[in-house]
Design brief:
- The protein is built from 3 helices and 6 strands; from the N terminus they run H-E-E-H-E-E-E-E-H.
- It starts with 10 loop residues before the first helix and ends with a helix.
- Strands 2-1-6-5-4-3 form a 6-stranded mixed β-sheet, covered by helices on one side.
- The protein is of the alpha+beta class and about 140 residues long.
- A hairpin with a 4-residue loop joins strand 3 and strand 4.
- It has a single domain, classed as Nuclear Transport Factor 2, Chain: A (Roll), CATH 3.10.450.50.
- The radius of gyration is 15 Å and the shape is globular.
- This is SnoaL-like domain-containing protein.
- It comes from Acrocarpospora pleiomorpha.
Length: about 140
């Protein structure tokens, strides 16, 4: 039984999420390296098992979709964790996506992060919104 509560990020989880943020904004520093060799990607419309290579192949179309919707910078506004056991931690993150001449979009994600030895990997990536539908509705 899980008896812990949502709490601020532990230093190692904070560093991991900061690395994720950095890799998403720096050209050539792919965040896909932070995912497990096989992981589950979910949103309200889909559930699919992916590899980091499959995610990397989909990222250019996703970036184009964000650009077409007028999204500029995306930044993390909050993050909390729920430690499930010694190996697994849920990390919920709120993001703000800035848009030209429009109100910013609020995006929410939850990662299930797994610790193998001293390495952290995302094994589940849950978008709490159907991002495609959200961006389509905002254009």
């Amino acid at each position: 039984m899980i008896t812990s509560a949502w709490s601020p990020l532990d230093p190692d989880i904070e560093a991991f999420i900061e690395d994720y943020d950095r890799r998403n904004t720096e050209q050539g520093a792919e965040a896909t390296a932070l995912f497990a060799p096989n992981f589950l990607a979910l949103d309200p419309a889909h559930a699919i098992a992916l590899t980091p290579a499959m995610l990397a192949a989909a990222l250019p179309a996703r970036r184009n979709m964000f650009t077409a919707a007028g999204v500029g910078s995306i930044h993390r506004t909050d993050a909390r964790q729920l430690r499930l056991d010694d190996q697994h931690t849920l990390v919920t993150i709120d993001w703000t996506a800035e848009r030209a001449n429009q109100d910013p979009l609020r995006l929410e994600s939850t990662f299930l992060v797994r610790r193998d030895s001293d390495t952290l990997h995302i094994v589940v990536y849950l978008n709490h919104h159907n991002v495609t539908a959200l961006l389509s509705a905002s254009t």
